[in-house]
Specification:
Radius of gyration: 21 Å
Number of strands: 2
Distance between the termini: 56 Å
Strand content: under 5%
Strand order of the largest sheet: 1-2
Largest sheet: 2 strands, antiparallel
Shape: globular
Helix content: 55-70%
């Protein structure tokens, strides 16, 4: 029997997931009202959310509606002040981390390595900052991770039956559609799923790779027609459905012409945006960029994860198409990074690296699983997390917007 279905395994995993979610949410909430002013693009999204609540037409609908609806929900429930703006981000940040933990556990079938992936992801700086900022990137990430998780479960779980696999694929497709309704970048995850699904359906039934053969059999059990229909129909359906409450709150018709016109505006807006050359950064420099992005709470990827994560990514490439964990993580990282090489958008900011960087925290334990569990009597996963924790502690004063003198407790950044 698959260990995922053993009662003790399920209980430990479920308890760990709950603790990961509650612990991370508590830390995201701590001091979330700092600073009391808008950070980077917060003004755009928060003012749009306020316009929604006031029933005033949005003068700059620069992106899909779901993220602004969620921010508006926080303001409606808690109030129009920084805690209310950022509360939904903290919730979805915790959900993202739980999704990463469950995805790593599903891929590696090792609770310790899954907790390592969750710890490295929490400590990467990106998740902490976006979970405390009223922008739509964290909503995109949460829905994308859970969509990938449901797809992976459909591939890996044994003894499910055809209809449960189809249900997981449908849930995955809907989640990816909601990710796109936060930011169009969700299409990257859709492309990864399509690539893996197509590969498995075309994989010969007689093969020397039992792992790939098993996943291909599970996907064939769900059916090529169901897979195609789910990912062709459900993401657009989920995406378009988010315009119904948005248009209703703006007193606009929910019609094909109206929704199409709004999406054409988004497309044209992204083609014409030009930012300061001092703040923009070419996409191929993001993976090794080490200078903090001051306008967004001194955003910078944890310096240890920059190098350890890249080394793990290279290792994943060595086993590409031979094992699901390495293949999936490599594809997710590459898709979320290389799409910026093809996008016609002229202005690129470092924080666009967020989705790609999130998968480096899983890449490291994926590489660790083929190494000895201990080194000099110490568990290797603990040795791996410790440097990330030290760097995170050094960065914390700045990225958490701590007041003076705590912001410079370990030295002031330029």
């Amino acid at each position: 029997m698959n260990p995922i279905w053993q009662p003790g395994f399920k209980m430990r995993t479920s308890l760990a997931a709950v603790l990961v979610g509650l612990f991370s949410w508590a830390l995201f909430l701590s001091g979330i009202a700092r600073p009391s002013y808008y950070v980077l693009d917060e003004e755009l999204y928060v003012e749009n959310a306020k316009a929604l609540l006031a029933g005033v037409q949005d003068t700059c609908p620069a992106g899909p509606p779901l993220g602004r609806l969620l921010i508006a929900g926080g303001i409606a429930v808690v109030g129009d002040y920084p805690f209310g703006w950022r509360l939904p981000s903290s919730v979805f940040g915790a959900l993202t981390l739980v999704g990463i933990f469950l995805l790593a556990n599903l891929l590696l079938e090792d609770l310790a390595l899954a907790l390592t992936a969750a710890a490295l992801t929490f400590l990467n700086n990106f998740l902490f900052i976006f979970s405390r900022t009223a922008m739509t990137d964290i909503f995109l990430m949460a829905f994308a991770v859970w969509g990938i998780l449901a797809f992976t479960a459909a591939l890996k779980m044994k003894s499910l039956g055809a209809w449960k696999r189809r249900g997981l694929l449908a849930a995955s497709a809907l989640s990816i559609g909601l990710a796109c309704a936060c930011k169009w970048n969700g299409v990257d995850e859709l492309c990864v799923i399509a690539a893996i699904g197509g590969f498995l359906f075309l994989w010969p039934r007689k093969t020397k790779n039992p792992e790939i053969a098993l996943y291909a059999g599970h996907l064939r059990e769900a059916g090529a027609l169901w897979f195609s229909a789910a990912y062709l129909l459900l993401p657009p359906l989920a995406y378009v459905s988010t315009y119904w409450p948005y248009n209703r709150m703006h007193h606009l018709p929910f019609s094909y012409d109206q929704v199409m016109a709004m999406n054409v505006y988004i497309w044209k807006n992204h083609l014409t945006i030009f930012g300061s050359r001092l703040a923009t950064l070419s996409w191929y420099r993001w993976p090794f960029h080490m200078q903090p992005f001051r306008p967004l709470s001194y955003l910078v990827l944890n310096w240890y994860i920059i190098w350890a994560g890249f080394a793990a990514f290279v290792y994943c490439l060595r086993r590409f198409a031979r094992s699901l964990p390495e293949t999936l993580i490599a594809l997710l990282y590459l898709a979320n990074l290389l799409q910026w090489a093809a996008t016609p958008q002229k202005t690129l900011y470092y924080y666009y690296y967020f989705p790609a960087a999130m998968f480096l925290g899983i890449a490291i334990p994926v590489a660790l699983r083929r190494l000895p569990a201990q080194i000099f009597g110490t568990r290797l996963n603990i040795v791996t997390v410790l440097p990330a924790a030290i760097v995170f502690a050094y960065c914390l004063g700045r990225i958490a917007n701590l007041p003076t003198p705590f912001d410079c407790a370990l030295g002031c950044w330029p």
